[in-house]
Amino acid sequence: FNTNNLWVDLVALKAQFKKHDGALPLPVMKNSKTVDPRDKESQKVLQLETAMGAAIQCFDGATALVIPRSRFAPVKTTNDLLALRSDAYTLTEDFRIVLAPEREGVPPDVKLDGSYKFTDAMEKMIPNGPPSLIGCKKLVVEGQVTFAAGVVIKGTVTIKNSGACKEVPAGTYEDTTKEL
C-alpha cells in the first residue's frame, strides 16, 4: 500500500530498535535512475530505499487506515497536479481542497506526455491557467502544447501535436481527438 504518513508508538519503536541493533529490518528496494532525471544520458546510478509502510510488519497489532479520497487529494505526478489546479477541485471555507460536487467523488483521469514529468514543463503548458476539467472524464496530452485561456474539456479528449509547440485554442472540446 502507499502511505504519506505514519503514526508510531514511540515505546514500541524504541523496543524494535533495541531488538534489531538500532534499525528496523525493512526490505531494500533498488531503483535504476540517472544522476540528472531530465537527461537520460547522464550517469546511471542505483537508488536504494525502503518503503516506510513496510514497517507495519515490525509491530504486533499494527493496522492501516484507509482514508477516502473525500478527505485528501493525492498529488504524486504532474497529472495529479494539473487536475488539482483545475476547477475539478474546490477550496472549502476551512481551506481543504476537495473534488467539486459535480465530480461525484471521481477525479478526472489526466495523462500528460512524458515531457511534462516536471512541474516547470507543466507550468509552461498552462501559462493562462489550467483548462476547465469539471466535466472531464479523461484528458490525454501527446506532444508539446500550451492551453489558451478559456479551454473547456468534457468527456474523453486527446490533444495531439507531433511538431513544434502549438496552442490549444479557446473553446469546448468534448469526446474528441484534437490534432494540432
Question: Which structural traits does this protein have?
Answer:
single chain, 180 residues, alpha/beta, 4-stranded parallel beta sheet, two-stranded antiparallel sheet, flat
Written description of the protein model:
The chain is α/β, with parallel strands linked by helices. The chain has helices at 10-19, 78-85, 119-125, and strands at 28-34, 44-50, 89-91, 97-99, 109-112, 132-142, 145-147, 151-160, 166-168, 171-179. The strands form four sheets. It has a four-stranded parallel β-sheet with strand order 5-6-8-10, with helices on one face. Strands 1-2 form a two-stranded antiparallel sheet. A hairpin with a 5-residue loop joins strand 3 (89-91) and strand 4 (97-99). It is flat, with a radius of gyration of 21 Å. The two termini are 40 Å apart. The mean pLDDT is 91.
Structural topology:
Elements: H1 10-19, E1 28-34, E2 44-50, H2 78-85, E3 89-91, E4 97-99, E5 109-112, H3 119-125, E6 132-142, E7 145-147, E8 151-160, E9 166-168, E10 171-179
Parallel strand pairs: 5-6, 6-8, 7-9, 8-10
Antiparallel strand pairs: 1-2, 3-4
